[in-house]
Amino acid sequence: MAGMDVRIVTEPQQGSDYDMQCKAARAVEELGFDGFFRSDHYLAMDEVEGLPGPTDAWITLAGLARETTRIRLGTLVSAATFRLPGPLAVQVAQVDRMSGGRVELGLGTGWFDEEHRAYGIPFPPDRFARFEEQLAVITGLWSTAHGDRFDFDGEYYRLLDSPALPKPAQDLVPIIIGGTGPVRTPRLAARYATEFNMPYASIQDTAVQLDRVRAAADAIGRDPASLILSAALVACIDDDPAEVARQTALMGIEHTDLQRTGLAGSPAQAVDTIGRYAEIGVTRVYLMIPELERGDLTHLELIAAQVLPQL
User: Fold this and answer.
1) Residue 1: predicted pLDDT
2) Could you tell me how far CA 100 lies from the centroid of its own chain?
3) Which pLDDT score is estimated for 8?
4) In this predicted structure, what is the pLDDT of residue 293?
5) What CA–CA distance (Å, rounded) separates 138 from 160?
6) What is the number of alpha carbons within 13 Å of residue 304 lying toward its C-beta?
7) Distance, CA of 81 to CA of 102 (rounded, Å)
8) Which of 63, 203, 227, 241 shows its CA 20 to 30 Å from the CA of 94?
9) Is the Cβ–Cβ distance between 9 and 232 less than 8 Å?
10) CA 171, CA 173: separation in Å to the nearest integer?
11) Low-confidence ranges of the chain (pLDDT < 70)
12) For the segment 255-310, what is each residue's pLDDT rounded down to a tens digit?
């Protein structure tokens, strides 16, 4: 399992302001993790009030780009419904330059209709088709050579004579696509993604989806090995079973369910489970740690001390 990339993912809409996120990101960097990623939501979930309220993902990441120096930064994932693809390409490229080339864009269709209603954001039924066009526009803008122009004539988005600026610091910002869809999601990942992410799923279900992604890559002549394969996992880790149970309850997940779809147990058990994800081809994990959004670094520090060194 040598070389497993370990990143942290947070859900700030549940109650985390910029200062708390900055504290967490700095700790993630100092403790030796590889990246700090966040969701992109405007409404708290699971009957949580979410005070003081949501923070915009890309404004936050712009700040974190200047507050950190090493870790990768990005969204897991941004909703394609929130931003037009041209301005999003500009925003991400700018944050990438602010970070010195450390940004990655996780992008999805958008699924949480309640937050769209709450903030007046359209929630069209044809989100997947729009998502596909967004990917074509964003990657097209970034890959257009300096001095050339970019045009796009789609059903939902039209760009004419764009200078395709600014360019990101990286030649191409890595694109992360994830999800459980059996056909369209693997197809888009094979075409556009640097990385495919399987969110909060069992080893068995993850293995099935990764095989679909590999097959989709093969079908278009892409080397499946060129895709990074990752898994997002809720991590309730402690040497004390009672504390694991408390964390699991806090996340609103049944303990037995989390044992199947995430990490629930001691540090040694977590290392063993991550090893089993590695056996099916996962080379990167995103860990969601309870209470990190609220500024509690206890279990982040525990994982850094007892899990990271064994990965």
Assistant:
1) 62
2) 19
3) 98
4) 83
5) 14
6) 16
7) 24
8) 227
9) yes
10) 7
11) 1-2
12) 899 999 999 999 999 999 999 999 999 999 999 999 898 889 999 999 999 999 99
Nearest to 194 by CA among 22, 5, 64, 55: 5
Sort 109 into a burial class: Cβ within 10 Å, 0-12 / 13-18 / 19+.
buried
Asked if 7 and 33 touch (Cβ cutoff 8 Å), the reply is: yes
3-state secondary structure of 7: strand
Burial class (CB in 10 A: 0-12, 13-18, 19+), 243: middle
Rounded CA separation 229/250 (Å): 29
Nearest alpha carbon to residue 291 among 72, 35, 27, 4: 27
Q: Which helix (H) or strand (E) holds 171?
A: none
Tokens of 14: 């549940």
Cβ neighbours of 296 (radius 10 Å)? 14
DSSP symbol at 3: T
Q: Rounded to whole angstroms, how far apart are CA atoms 296 and 8?
A: 14
Beta carbons of 64 and 103 less than 8 angstroms apart: no
Across the strands, what pairs with 198? 231
Do residues 265 and 242 make contact, with C-beta atoms less than 8 angstroms apart?
A: no
Average pLDDT for the chain = 96
Joined tokens for residue 229: 């394969």
Q: What angle do CA 260, 263, 269 make, to 5 degrees?
A: 100
